Amino acid sequence: xAQARYxxxxxxxxxxxxxxxxxxxxxxxxxxxxxxxxxxLTSGTTGRHHGLLHSGGRYAVSDRESATECIxxxxxLRRICPGTLETNDGLFVAVEEEDLAYLEPFVEGCAAxxxxxxxxxxxxxxxxxxxxxxxxxxxxxxxxxxxxGWRMPLRFFATARHNGAEIxxxxxxxxxxxxxxxxxxxxxxxxxxxxxxxxxxxxxVNATGxxxxxxxAMAGVEVPIRPSPGVxxxxxxxxxxxxxxxxxxxxxxxIIVPQRALxxxxxxxxxxxxxxxxxxxxxxxxxxxxxxxxxxxxxxxxPMRAAWSAARPLIGARSAGDSGRELSxxxxxxxxxxxxxxxxxxxxxxxxxxxxxxxAEVCADVVxxxxxxxEPCRTRETVLLPHEAYYRAAA
Length: 395
Ligand SMILES: Cc1cc2nc3c(=O)[nH]c(=O)nc-3n(C[C@H](O)[C@H](O)[C@H](O)COP(=O)(O)OP(=O)(O)OC[C@H]3O[C@@H](n4cnc5c(N)ncnc54)[C@H](O)[C@@H]3O)c2cc1C
Hints:
Helix content is 27%, strand content 28%. It has helices spanning 17-28, 64-80, 103-113, 122-128, 151-162, 212-217, 282-295, 336-340, 356-371, 389-394, and strands at 9-13, 32-36, 52-53, 85-86, 90-94, 118-121, 138-142, 145-147, 166-168, 171-179, 182-190, 196-200, 203-206, 225-236, 243-246, 255-259, 262-266, 304-315, 331-335, 345-350. The relative contact order is 0.20. Flavin-adenine dinucleotide (FAD) binds at residues 13-19, 36-39, 43-46, 49-52, 54, 172-173, 207-211, 215, 229-230, 232, 266-267, 310-313, 351-354.
């Protein structure tokens, strides 16, 4: 286990992909790191997402900042997470005449964001994916991939732990220690033992995704987060080998991700106030079947393995819209000294599972600057330990 080179201690709240990547980045820079997660690692949104390593194609027309982040991180994760990704590529597929109107803006948007594309005829697409809707008119191939939503982030936790980070699961932050506009730690409850206690830190980072507004409120500050859930439906059987996306403006049920022996169809989008109260609306499940079948007709008659929902942490004011689709998928770090005059407290939120490493890099830069530590980020080049190492380190 690596020894911390600095005495400065950072407490990270939230054990999703973002918190895990941040723990890895800060431990690699030599800081003392403690991460607390109220449940199991990735039990928030990270462990319940689609498992699509985005090429950025989905956002290339309307959200180029996010699209560019995705393709950059897609390339880096292929390097640092060998073996955890299925490098199966993705197709954006036109199945109706009106989808064709999206073809040129899509290819142009991808080019502007640095996303490589290959145009295919309908017949070529069908040869690659025989279960596609036989009415397919055209397709564009992009470097999407399938990722394991559990094992990929676990590699960040494993490497962080190897480098000295302390990871405490089933440990919730119930309050922040705030005195004179300065956050100096947190009040914790261990859900296994029932014990309560405190932990002191030089900086506390709020990496609680859709819960960030709630944790920020513990310091008396606001972050403009809109928890925006979506429903996902896994049907039995692998109906495709590539990631299939409908070639149109982002909408319901327009992505199918092959995951092991399942096909995951998603998703929908709405906004809620409480990320613990999502539900799985029956009409959304029906819509996943109906829209998914437009891409792959066999979806219609394939038995369901599971349906679930998860909430995106989207950045936007509460009046910005009502479906969440209009909000950018990019991310933001808030140094609450600059935004609210509260020292010792930082929030990192928004983004995608695909951009976890980049989010951590930007946030770790902010944390180091606050602490006067001059250490470069090394996560772009550091190949992560395999996910099993997380358990080995625990033994
Ligand atoms: C339906 C859906 C599909 C998606 N599909 C994809 C996809 O295919 N590809 C992709 O790249 N992205 C996808 N995303 C986006 C992606 O899932 C999220 O951007 C990402 O998982 C957010 O990670 P996070 O670590 O910031 O948040 P989370 O994973 O939610 O982690 C926050 C953690 O904080 C913990 N926490 C909360 N409060 C406390 C507290 N008081 N004390 C301690 N811990 C606390 C929670 O338990 C949680 O584990 C999808 C999102 C949704 C909703």
